[in-house]
Amino acid sequence: MAARDSTKDEVETPDDGHNGETVFDEDETSETVPVRYTTTSYGADYPVDGLVQRLKAGDIIIPTFDPEVKPGDDMQGFQRQFVWSPTQSDRFIESLLLGLPVPGIFLVRQEDGRFLVLDAQQRLRSLRGFFDGVINGKEFILKHVQEQYKGKKYDSLDIEDRRRINDSIIHATIVRQDDPSGDMSSIYSIFERLNTGGTLLQPQEVRVALYHGPLVELLRELNNLEQWRSLYGRKNPRLKDQELILRFIALLYWHEKYKRPMKGFLNDYLEANRKFQMNPGEEITEIFKATTEVAVHCLGARAFRLKNALNAAVFDSMMVALAKRLRAKGPIGDGENLRRKYRALLADPNYLHAVERAIADEENVNKVSR
After folding, report:
1. How far is the C-alpha of 188 from the C-alpha of 294, rounded, in Å?
2. What sign has the CA pseudo-torsion 119, 6, 355, 8?
3. What's the number of CA atoms in the CB half-sphere (13 Å) around residue 269?
């Protein structure tokens, strides 16, 4: 089994109730999933108007990453703010109008025959925006271009210019995973490697794009619950709060299948229960609500903190233990007894040793989940 970097990471999560505090967790971005892949890749040339038509039809899906935006037909996952400047978008369109070569795009062919964009989101959004006449909520009129194109929209281009951009060719590299079959593990790895420039995507951001479906939508809904927000604080822009909810669900239902690294375990569970094939959404919602209510009522809003930081290992172990107790025996009547046991556990050297080490190790997951 591949060695794991046990580096810890503190992710800033300022909030009203726990202002300036952090979440203490292993640096999941340093983990690698020890799997070998067999993939097939091939090239295809698309005319620009054909790409735009496929985007509008939802045959090509642009992964997006904003937890507050509900995905549309051509958006999968959550939308990250459009980051290209008007100058960048204009220059890209101008290159096509001038007949200049432009970089290719990476697509992954999904089981349903649709394509997921692995690279070139900004270029494809610029194309779609120019053809629609609107980008980032504003009218798309060329400004930062040669004089003959200034003030032009797609609909106001000369017929020759419109034909030239329609017929411009963009090369696509299309990737399909052959083995292991039936999952997206290699695509996850490719996505991480293609997105190493600029702001590094966090593991949960990649998950919501690749494994989007009813369970990802449920994570977003659970993340809005009042009791959960009392425990965690303000929403994390990098989806760390949603990842903690996923960890709770996966460790509760799939503990016996756990293998390091944690990143791969969460990927596997999210894919396996993507459409609630194993654990119904109603059941997940009920146990998460009940567990967070007990945690807030009995342990307080500062639960799962050894110091100022919410400790992910303490969260994992306590939340899963509480959920198992609730499922086995029903409501907890003696809150004071629970508080005494909680304080005693936090004073136990063996427990502290386990949670202060890399929680992703199988041995420590077993210890803290008992």
Report:
1. 36
2. negative
3. 26
